[in-house]
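Exercise (ungraded).
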Amino acid sequence: MAVLRPIPDTSIFDLRLARRGRRLNKLCAALCSPEEREAFKRDEEAFMSRFGLTATEKELVRRRDFQGLIDAGTNIYYLLKIGSATGNGLYKMGAQMRGESYEQFLATRNIRGAL
Amino acid sequence: MGTVVGGIGLSHVPSIGPVVDRGRTQEPAWKPLFDAYVPVREWLAKLKPDVAIVVYNDHAADFSFDKYPTFALGVAERYAIGDEGFGTRPLPEVTGDAELSTHLAEALIYEHEFDLTLCQELAVEHGFLVPMNLCFPHSPHGWPVRAIPLAVNVIQHPLPTARRCYRLGQALRAAVETFPEDSKIVVMGTGGMSHQLQGKRFGFMNEKFDQWFLDQLEADPERLARITHQEIMEQAGAEAVELIMWLTMRGALSPQARRVHRNYYAPMTTGMGLITFEA
């Protein structure tokens, strides 16, 4: 049977990780509705409590710790929804995950104007 | 009878959507991508397909991990434009082909034993819409083809194998050919190419791998279908695994299908490939 082997500096979103991130991913899924996005922006703490996030998970959201959220089981495509609701697009989140500034990250790209 | 007249492999990067919506396609950073589709649109205008079957993945817009199907086929008259967390794009709803969908569902499940989830309501998002934007320019009234979504789980492992995706394409071709009405069909395999969107390896791309994948897709798809998820993720980034959906498209064509167009552009974080075949 094919079992996935770890890859350096890479998160592989399997069922174990998906189960760990169940609360976080449910919160993110709700952000596909404009009303829920407003509710999140209005009172982030209440929103997180509604989805039963643990104290650790809430702290990751407060700190906008994107790699921490990935490690806690947030799927990258779900994470994009929190990113969007908090003004952090994919490339800003990626720069943080690489430990770089946004400008440093853009400088590594082939055509940085394709935003 | 139904006929598969062509296949298209192409990337479905979300940032392309707003570029289309805001009329920015001729900006220097985007022009090379859109220019590659000019001859493709001309080719499609000559082929005149009635229906596009779009093999794509939902990025948690209408499916969630509460229930996430491995393969899901749209069987509706029409498909709404989804909100995947960034607002609903200003696009006309997509007209489906429920007769063909129903035939495909029966043929794939009874004859070919692919046990699909069948969707009477399905909101489509960038995985489906960006390829449509690139190939089939819409008007305020609608799209120039009917379209059928075929969603594949490529985001929560265990994923279907590359070979299973290829076999699904072969079954799809056989199913189309037993459709009693005259209908010309293009199959689109979407996603990738190389990219990784998390971890320290965020932004990783591998053009050499992507070009090799395009070569193999053309020359020896049966062999390419033996590739493992592990090999794709190691060589092309974790999110590149969605390339297995291109094999569904290739499986729906004859082994001798003739390649017509090919392009590659990798400006930011995803290798954006394009390849077309005449069946």
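Further reading is listed at the end of the chapter. For now, observe: The two ends of chain B are 15 Å apart (CA to CA). Residues 2-199+209-267 of chain B form a domain with the Protocatechuate 4,5-dioxygenase; Chain B fold (CATH 3.40.830.10).
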